[in-house]
């Protein structure tokens, strides 16, 4: 566990949180700085920086807990939709280096946009496919 | 399976895709309209509209496949970070009603921002916590 990790301190009870759910492996609480009110975070209690560090036995339970929290956020805020989001490394806007899934309630016309989409030229898509697929 | 579902047609081989990975339960391919080149999608082969419809036996394998694809996207594009994103219902900007996780490669200064964050007033955070937690 990281001694200076805010989320580890929350897990250990050294910092408070607005707790929504807890089991042996996971903790869910409200984000202090919500994109929309009701915005929740779901973390494993063990300290893993990114998804690349999370072992199989945690991965296989994580999404089920995220779903459970998403159901509750949707019902509790009467939202019309839910976004899940998760950032790995600073380049992806990860602020706290302890993996966390964001569960964000959404409504029609709430003003939260999507990133603009581009397209591939000529054989570029095949080139990207080949470069990525060789690592799987 | 939805007869008119684009992703079901890809699964059945009726539409082409830039395939990155396939197993018995999941398929990963490049998004035709990438936020950044190398942007991948990971779907279950069965048709489920949102995460709320996905059963436990699929949930428990899904994140491991997403991680596998994320590792490959990061290596194959030489990215410095990875975002995972998943939208449920139109209000959350879900475009195709067959659940898909986005795997998006990121680099410092690539211009993809985060949604602005707000805060709670007075007892508002407790009120949201109570309304959500009662559904878990």
Question: Would you mind describing this structure in some detail?
Answer:
The structure is a homodimer of 136-residue chains. The first copy, chain A, is of the alpha+beta class. Chain A has one domain (6-133): HIT family, subunit A, CATH 3.30.428. Chain A has three helices and five strands; from the N terminus they run H-E-E-E-H-E-E-H. Chain A has helices at 6-11, 56-77, 124-133, and strands spanning 19-22, 26-30, 40-44, 81-88, 101-106. Chain A has a five-stranded antiparallel sheet, covered by helices on one side. At the A-B interface, strand 1, helix 2, strand 4 and helix 3 of A face strand 1, helix 2, strand 4, strand 5 and helix 3 of B. Strand 4 (81-88) of chain A pairs antiparallel with strand 4 of chain B, so a sheet runs across the interface.
Summarize the structure in short:
2 copies of one chain form a homodimer. Chain A has helices at 6-11, 56-77, 124-133, and strands spanning 19-22, 26-30, 40-44, 81-88, 101-106.
Distance between the termini of chain A: 30 Å
Contiguous low-pLDDT stretches of chain A (5 residues minimum) are none
Q: What is the arithmetic mean of pLDDT of chain A?
A: 96
State the fourth-level CATH superfamily of chain A: HIT-like
What is the class of chain A in the CATH system? Alpha Beta
What is the percentage of strand-forming residues of chain A? Answer: 15-25%
Biggest interface found: A-B, 79 and 80 residues
What is the oligomeric state here? homodimer
Q: Compute the CA-based radius of gyration of chain A.
A: 17 Å
CATH topology of chain A: HIT family, subunit A
Q: Please count the helical segments of chain A.
A: 3
Number of domains of chain A: 1
Largest sheet data of chain A = 5 strands, antiparallel
């Amino acid at each position: 566990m990281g001694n200076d990790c805010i989320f580890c301190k929350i897990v250990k009870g050294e910092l408070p949180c607005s707790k929504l759910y807890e089991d042996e492996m996971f903790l869910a609480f409200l984000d202090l700085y919500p994109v929309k009110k009701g915005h929740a975070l779901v973390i494993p209690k063990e300290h893993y920086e990114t998804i690349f560090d999370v072992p199989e036995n945690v991965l296989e339970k994580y999404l089920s807990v995220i779903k459970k929290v998403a159901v509750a956020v949707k019902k509790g805020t009467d939202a019309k939709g839910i976004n899940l989001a998760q950032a790995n490394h600073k380049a992806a806007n990860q602020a706290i280096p302890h993996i966390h899934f964001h569960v964000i309630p959404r409504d029609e016309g709430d003003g939260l946009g999507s990133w603009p989409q581009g397209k591939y030229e000529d054989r570029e898509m095949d080139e990207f496919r080949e470069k990525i697929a060789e690592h799987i």
